[in-house]
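hey so u asked for the seq, here:
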Amino acid sequence: LRSLVGSEMCIRDSFTSVKKEGEAYKEALSKDDAENARTYIHAIKSASIYIGAQRVADMASFLEYLCASNNLTEARKYTFDFFFELDEVVHLLTLYIKYLI
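ran it, C-alpha coordinates below
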Protein backbone atom coordinates (compact mmCIF):
# COMPACT_ATOMS: atom_id res chain seq x y z
CA LEU A 1 0.00 0.00 0.00
CA ARG A 2 2.81 2.42 0.85
CA SER A 3 4.38 1.78 -2.56
CA LEU A 4 1.04 2.39 -4.27
CA VAL A 5 0.52 5.66 -2.46
CA GLY A 6 4.05 6.77 -3.37
CA SER A 7 3.47 5.92 -7.02
CA GLU A 8 0.13 7.72 -6.98
CA MET A 9 1.81 10.82 -5.58
CA CYS A 10 4.49 10.73 -8.30
CA ILE A 11 1.84 10.45 -11.00
CA ARG A 12 -0.18 13.28 -9.43
CA ASP A 13 2.97 15.44 -9.36
CA SER A 14 3.52 14.63 -13.04
CA PHE A 15 -0.03 15.79 -13.80
CA THR A 16 0.60 19.07 -12.00
CA SER A 17 3.83 19.56 -13.91
CA VAL A 18 2.18 18.76 -17.24
CA LYS A 19 -0.56 21.32 -16.62
CA LYS A 20 1.98 24.05 -15.85
CA GLU A 21 4.18 23.12 -18.80
CA GLY A 22 1.11 23.00 -21.03
CA GLU A 23 0.07 26.52 -20.14
CA ALA A 24 3.64 27.76 -20.64
CA TYR A 25 3.78 25.98 -24.03
CA LYS A 26 0.54 27.63 -25.18
CA GLU A 27 1.80 31.03 -24.05
CA ALA A 28 5.13 30.59 -25.84
CA LEU A 29 3.28 29.47 -28.97
CA SER A 30 1.03 32.53 -28.83
CA LYS A 31 4.13 34.74 -28.66
CA ASP A 32 5.80 32.95 -31.62
CA ASP A 33 8.57 31.81 -29.25
CA ALA A 34 9.61 28.54 -30.90
CA GLU A 35 12.55 27.87 -28.58
CA ASN A 36 10.53 28.05 -25.36
CA ALA A 37 7.58 26.23 -26.93
CA ARG A 38 9.96 23.39 -27.82
CA THR A 39 11.39 23.34 -24.29
CA TYR A 40 7.93 23.10 -22.70
CA ILE A 41 6.62 20.47 -25.10
CA HIS A 42 9.77 18.42 -24.47
CA ALA A 43 9.04 18.50 -20.73
CA ILE A 44 5.48 17.33 -21.41
CA LYS A 45 6.82 14.53 -23.61
CA SER A 46 9.14 13.37 -20.82
CA ALA A 47 6.31 13.35 -18.27
CA SER A 48 4.09 11.47 -20.73
CA ILE A 49 6.71 8.79 -21.15
CA TYR A 50 7.07 8.56 -17.37
CA ILE A 51 3.35 7.88 -16.90
CA GLY A 52 3.23 5.47 -19.83
CA ALA A 53 1.18 7.62 -22.20
CA GLN A 54 2.97 6.66 -25.40
CA ARG A 55 0.42 8.17 -27.81
CA VAL A 56 0.69 11.52 -26.02
CA ALA A 57 4.49 11.26 -26.04
CA ASP A 58 4.43 10.56 -29.79
CA MET A 59 2.19 13.57 -30.41
CA ALA A 60 4.50 15.69 -28.23
CA SER A 61 7.50 14.50 -30.28
CA PHE A 62 5.77 15.71 -33.43
CA LEU A 63 5.00 19.11 -31.86
CA GLU A 64 8.59 19.32 -30.63
CA TYR A 65 9.80 18.67 -34.18
CA LEU A 66 7.51 21.40 -35.54
CA CYS A 67 8.77 23.88 -32.94
CA ALA A 68 12.39 22.95 -33.65
CA SER A 69 11.68 23.56 -37.35
CA ASN A 70 10.16 26.92 -36.42
CA ASN A 71 6.91 25.76 -38.01
CA LEU A 72 4.61 27.28 -35.42
CA THR A 73 1.67 27.57 -37.80
CA GLU A 74 1.54 23.78 -38.10
CA ALA A 75 2.19 23.37 -34.37
CA ARG A 76 -0.86 25.49 -33.61
CA LYS A 77 -2.99 23.25 -35.85
CA TYR A 78 -2.17 20.17 -33.77
CA THR A 79 -2.13 21.75 -30.33
CA PHE A 80 -5.86 21.39 -29.62
CA ASP A 81 -5.86 17.67 -30.52
CA PHE A 82 -2.74 17.14 -28.44
CA PHE A 83 -4.21 18.71 -25.31
CA PHE A 84 -7.51 16.91 -25.84
CA GLU A 85 -5.64 13.60 -25.88
CA LEU A 86 -3.52 14.62 -22.90
CA ASP A 87 -6.60 15.58 -20.87
CA GLU A 88 -8.18 12.21 -21.65
CA VAL A 89 -5.10 10.36 -20.41
CA VAL A 90 -4.95 12.42 -17.23
CA HIS A 91 -8.64 11.81 -16.59
CA LEU A 92 -8.36 8.04 -17.12
CA LEU A 93 -5.27 7.71 -14.95
CA THR A 94 -6.92 9.73 -12.20
CA LEU A 95 -9.92 7.38 -12.23
CA TYR A 96 -7.62 4.36 -12.23
CA ILE A 97 -5.65 5.65 -9.23
CA LYS A 98 -8.85 6.36 -7.29
CA TYR A 99 -10.01 2.82 -8.07
CA LEU A 100 -6.76 1.33 -6.74
CA ILE A 101 -6.85 3.26 -3.48
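The chain has a mean pLDDT of 84. Residues 26 and 34 are 11 Å apart (CA to CA).
lmk if thats what u needed
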